[in-house]
Amino acid sequence: MISQFELIGDNKVGVLPKQVNQLEMCREIAAQKDIQENDSSFMLVDLDKIIERFNLWKRELPMIEPFYAVKCNTDVVLIRVLASLGCGFDCASREEIDIVMETGVSADRLIYANPCKTRSFIVHAMERDVRMMTFDNAEELIKIGKLHPNAEMILRIAVSDPTATCPLNLKFGADPVLAAPQLLKLAHEEGVNVVGISFHVGSGCNDATAYRTALSHAKNLCEIGEGYGFKMDIIDMGGGFPGAEHAHNPFEKIAETIRDALDEFFPETDKRLIAEPGRFFAAGPFSLAANIIHATEVPASKITKDPKDSADHGYMYYINDGVYGSFNCILFDHAHPIGGPLFEVDRNEKYMSTIWGPTCDSLDLVEDKKLMVKMEIGEWLYYPDMGAYTLAAATTFNGFAKPVPMYVMSEEMWANIKDSNHI
Ligand code: PLP
């Protein structure tokens, strides 16, 4: 059980003798809440897990500096812990720049990685001395040339894994063969300083060979840029790395492909290699516990839409987090969260079930046609790996609160980070 509380920023963090098992910790918290008759949903945040992920990154890709993509989850404790580990940050707006710098991170650890930036945000970045920023079009180059003469521009090229969960290159990235060389020429003519190449193969990458293709283009474009007198000493490999431990395409495999491609295209390079992982850090540390606020029996056919099932029992559950809250990842991140009873139950028979969010909108559907044991009003459901693209875009539509974060860490971890300037 929690032995002491410490503060990270203004946030209370429970300290335990050793790293928690997230499921068991959620059970403890939920049992406590049951005694207090408090049924609000909560998000357990296992801070040791962040360190575990950071160490995994350092082990597999030690030559690449991670710049955490803040858009994925702007939780300030997550940011402070990553900052204390020496992580850099990818920010896409004025607000994200300010959130990160508020934690004491210096401007040289930030990249403003949004190829189409608001003019006033560019001025703000200049005032805060954030220099590294991406572009993929001529108009942005000219805008930056006027507004931020000290900017260090990184040309984002479009190289895509078309099978990624969220392909991004419809919106961003210059064609590496046709447009990118022209942009380097224009930058030279306009006197804008280009320092490197970036790409994002798509969030939730399924085909690691996209990184290899991108690195081969990056090599050519660095040579073209050097021909114009640019130093071209940064390669930014974007995001796309899986967040869940048992991902279909494991991180270790992607890392191996990247290491091989770096050996092939940038052997013994003195270039600065960076990446912008988002879900890789944010997904695993967050587990959601949501309360069943209502349950109702229906003919199973209402769920399966098959009249043959009309004699079977089915159940519709309503929980206190939904698509307007953390489960917005179902719409925006093409996610399919799979939950289950938080506590072990001695009921075995499974029924066709639907899990709805709490709002009055039927779009607010969390899981459908799910076979699950019968649950009661007031019981809890547990969803692991809920930190990526969940809380960041959650709303309080219909007056339903977002889940409350409950931070925990081990004594060992606290000892390691407590003296950091970012804590
Ligand atoms: N970098 C940029 C520019 C992005 O747009 C995103 C996600 O949309 C990321 C990094 C993070 O991607 P991921 O969460 O797949 O690592």
UniProtKB/TrEMBL annotation:
<keyword id="KW-0456">Lyase</keyword>
<feature type="modified residue" description="N6-(pyridoxal phosphate)lysine">
    <location>
        <position position="71"/>
    </location>
</feature>
<dbReference type="GO" id="GO:0033387">
    <property type="term" value="P:putrescine biosynthetic process from arginine, via ornithine"/>
</dbReference>
<comment type="function">
    <text>Catalyzes the first and rate-limiting step of polyamine biosynthesis that converts ornithine into putrescine, which is the precursor for the polyamines, spermidine and spermine. Polyamines are essential for cell proliferation and are implicated in cellular processes, ranging from DNA replication to apoptosis.</text>
</comment>
<dbReference type="InterPro" id="IPR022643">
    <property type="entry name" value="De-COase2_C"/>
</dbReference>
<comment type="subunit">
    <text>Homodimer. Only the dimer is catalytically active, as the active sites are constructed of residues from both monomers.</text>
</comment>
<dbReference type="InterPro" id="IPR022653">
    <property type="entry name" value="De-COase2_pyr-phos_BS"/>
</dbReference>
<dbReference type="Pfam" id="PF02784">
    <property type="entry name" value="Orn_Arg_deC_N"/>
</dbReference>
<dbReference type="InterPro" id="IPR029066">
    <property type="entry name" value="PLP-binding_barrel"/>
</dbReference>
<comment type="pathway">
    <text>Amine and polyamine biosynthesis; putrescine biosynthesis via L-ornithine pathway; putrescine from L-ornithine: step 1/1.</text>
</comment>
<feature type="domain" description="Orn/DAP/Arg decarboxylase 2 C-terminal">
    <location>
        <begin position="295"/>
        <end position="387"/>
    </location>
</feature>
<dbReference type="Pfam" id="PF00278">
    <property type="entry name" value="Orn_DAP_Arg_deC"/>
</dbReference>
<dbReference type="InterPro" id="IPR022644">
    <property type="entry name" value="De-COase2_N"/>
</dbReference>
<dbReference type="GO" id="GO:0004586">
    <property type="term" value="F:ornithine decarboxylase activity"/>
</dbReference>
<feature type="domain" description="Orn/DAP/Arg decarboxylase 2 N-terminal">
    <location>
        <begin position="47"/>
        <end position="283"/>
    </location>
</feature>
<feature type="active site" description="Proton donor">
    <location>
        <position position="360"/>
    </location>
</feature>
<dbReference type="InterPro" id="IPR000183">
    <property type="entry name" value="Orn/DAP/Arg_de-COase"/>
</dbReference>
<dbReference type="InterPro" id="IPR009006">
    <property type="entry name" value="Ala_racemase/Decarboxylase_C"/>
</dbReference>
<keyword id="KW-0663">Pyridoxal phosphate</keyword>
<dbReference type="InterPro" id="IPR002433">
    <property type="entry name" value="Orn_de-COase"/>
</dbReference>
<dbReference type="GO" id="GO:0005737">
    <property type="term" value="C:cytoplasm"/>
</dbReference>
<keyword id="KW-0620">Polyamine biosynthesis</keyword>
<comment type="similarity">
    <text>Belongs to the Orn/Lys/Arg decarboxylase class-II family.</text>
</comment>
<protein>
    <recommendedName>
        <fullName>ornithine decarboxylase</fullName>
        <ecNumber>4.1.1.17</ecNumber>
    </recommendedName>
</protein>
